[in-house]
Amino acid sequence: MKNPALDDHQIGLEARADADDHLAVRTWLRLLSLTTQVEQEIRTRLRERFGTTLARFDYLAQLERHADGLRMSALSRFLMVTGGNVTGLTTQLEAEGLVERQPDPDDGRSWRVRLSEQGRREFAAMATEHEAWVRELFDGVPPRDQQRLYELLGQMRHHLARPA
């Protein structure tokens, strides 16, 4: 059933699928389209409300989860970006007073980065609104269906993670 609110521009990647394409292909394109749509909405809201980017939000979120800080290499792995990207963001966020870079006590050649007090306060405000936005975006799906979708996506991840 086609939603008239989703024209060709709004439907995006899902428009690549035809009704006679395999269900797996149509499902993949729908999932990709939904992910892109939700991500774009979050990006827009972060920019308009906080003047920040999703990359910066994700960076701060990783540090918030690791109170003792992270080595730059670990931060790079968690964020799935290059070390150069992490270094650039760290330099910017440090200049703004949101993070602190300290020598790693376990390895004098490495740096650990952690949220500053200001960074903790600012991230807490962003995270609270971010959660409310995500909940709002899922409001149209009943909780039991959200739970089922969560389980099905977990099943798919488990399937993909098994050894070849």
UniProtKB/TrEMBL annotation:
The keyword rRNA-binding does not apply. Transmembrane segments: none annotated. GO terms for biological process: response to stress. Keywords: DNA-binding, Transcription, Transcription regulation. It comes from the Bacteria. Residues 28-158 form the HTH marR-type domain. One of its GO terms (molecular function) is DNA-binding transcription factor activity. PANTHER family: HTH-TYPE TRANSCRIPTIONAL REPRESSOR YETL, TRANSCRIPTIONAL REGULATOR, MARR FAMILY. This is MarR family transcriptional regulator. The lineage of its organism: Bacteria, Pseudomonadati, Pseudomonadota, Betaproteobacteria, Burkholderiales.
